[in-house]
Amino acid sequence: MSVVSQVILTADDELRYPTSGELKSVQEYFQTGAQRTRIVATLSENEKKIVDESVKNLWKAHPEYISPGGNAFGGRERALCVRDYGWYLRLVTYGVLAGDKDPIESIGLVGVREMYNSLGVPVPGMVDAIRCLKDASLGLLSEGDADKTAPYFDFIIQSMS
Prior knowledge:
Radius of gyration: 18 Å
Structural class: mainly alpha
CATH topology of the largest domain: Globin-like
Shape: elongated
CATH class of the largest domain: Mainly Alpha
Order of helices and strands: HHHHHHHHH
């Protein structure tokens, strides 16, 4: 949910007009619109590059995942892992665009630990995968854009930890 939606719903629930503080948060949201759309465009246009670098770095850090008996051993298993990278990157772009972590939580994090545990996927490995994804993504952004984006990756990492 965007900042604008949150302000409206909160005010309506309380049968009041938005407060000056809420209006200020809406104003700040609009002022960062160009930055948020630039970040989302950069990440989405570079998805393949980001995912490829992230996967390479994860395999380097955890070669046991792609060794016989590892969770990502074999073409099908690797493809599923790579698909998840793209999915998490897309979730981050939703959060950046909304200016809120709610889309990440509601779309992608509810039950994620349980899902990976039931599939036998090591959750610490997924946390490392998100860190690799974060590093590869932030490396393509300016310092200011990276500072704006990092908390969304950190939210996923914290939620999985």
